[in-house]
Specification:
Helix content: over 70%
CATH architecture: Orthogonal Bundle
Number of domains: 1
Strand order of the largest sheet: 1-2
Number of strands: 2
CATH topology: MetI-like fold
CATH class: Mainly Alpha
CATH superfamily: MetI-like
Strand content: under 5%
Shape: flat
Structural class: mainly alpha
Mean pLDDT: 88
Number of helices: 13
Length: 289
């Protein structure tokens, strides 16, 4: 019995070593660094909680936090709604459905830097295809700098993120729809229920857990999104699209304030930790049942 107990510990030992080496130790070093004033090229000086105090009082941090919430909320909501439409459409039987499924996955498959530069070209104020199209149909009289306008830039980057991410929602929800039993739908048809009623009272309740899982996953990914925003706007204009990841990057690699940049990342950790905890609980619930 004692030998079997030791064998169990030996089997999980590689996992703990990898976890500690790749996640645990770097996270400990990062957390420790937040209590120091560390600038590239200079020795670290212990300052206690000053980094956190400065960040909490910094208007740039407040703006970046608000931008992160707006960007994440708008993107996830858009991806959920468009993904539901995609799943409902592909759940119906029609000719060429398999080909359409593959085509709709392209935004998710294409490398993110390719997507970002394509959208940057679409939104370009002089050569962009969006301006060209709107000018030809007469909706605008002169080109618009979509990524340079304070009022249009955030919706533009949200649209780009929605376009890239909605296939993940669509395919996930489609998989969930295809395992819903047909009996409730047949009973609803007999009772004269409309398609909207079937969607609200049969489809949505059966997809509730799956929707929560994909929404949490997408929230985590979108909140941490950096490449798309950096390529499109680099946080501009005037910081309107500067989210927490971009603020942390600028503090670390432009201002050379390493400890302050890590402190910004540490502010993101509790929120993401709560989302991950909820996600793991929901993933375990079906198994427990």
């Amino acid at each position: 019995m004692k030998r079997e107990s030791w064998e169990k510990y030996l089997l999980v030992l590689p996992f703990f070593l990898i976890f500690f080496g790749l996640i645990g130790y770097p996270l400990y070093i990062a957390f420790k660094l937040t209590f120091y004033q560390k600038t590239i090229g200079l020795p670290a000086v212990f300052i206690g909680m000053d980094n956190y105090a400065q960040i909490v009082q910094d208007p740039m941090f407040h703006r970046a936090l608000w931008n992160s919430l707006v960007y994440t909320g708008g993107s996830v909501l858009g991806k959920l709604l468009l993904g539901l439409v995609m799943a409902l459409a592909l759940n119906e039987a029609f000719r060429g459905r398999a080909i359409l499924r593959g085509m709709l996955m392209l935004p998710w498959i294409v490398p993110i830097f390719v997507s970002a530069y394509n959208w940057r070209w679409i939104y370009d104020g002089t050569l962009g295809i969006l301006n060209l199209f709107l000018l030809q149909i007469g909706l605008i009289q002169e080109p618009i700098a979509w990524l340079g306008n304070l009022h249009t830039v955030m919706p533009c980057v949200i649209i780009a993120n929605v376009w890239r991410g909605f296939p993940f929602f669509g395919i996930s929800l489609l998989a969930g729809m295809q395992v819903i039993p047909r009996e409730p739908y047949e009973a609803a048809d007999v009772d004269g229920a409309s398609s909207v009623q079937r969607f609200l009272y049969i489809t949505i309740p059966n997809l509730k857990i799956l929707i929560l899982v994909v929404v949490i996953l997408s929230t985590i990914w979108t909140f941490n999104d950096f490449p798309l925003l950096w390529i499109l706007t680099a946080g501009g204009p005037a910081g309107v699209t500067e989210t927490l990841p971009i603020l942390g990057y600028k503090l670390a690699f432009i201002s050379a304030l390493i400890s302050k940049a890590v402190s910004v990342a540490m502010f993101m950790l509790p929120l993401l930790g709560i989302l991950i905890y909820i996600l793991t609980r929901q993933l375990r619930t079906p198994t427990a049942k």
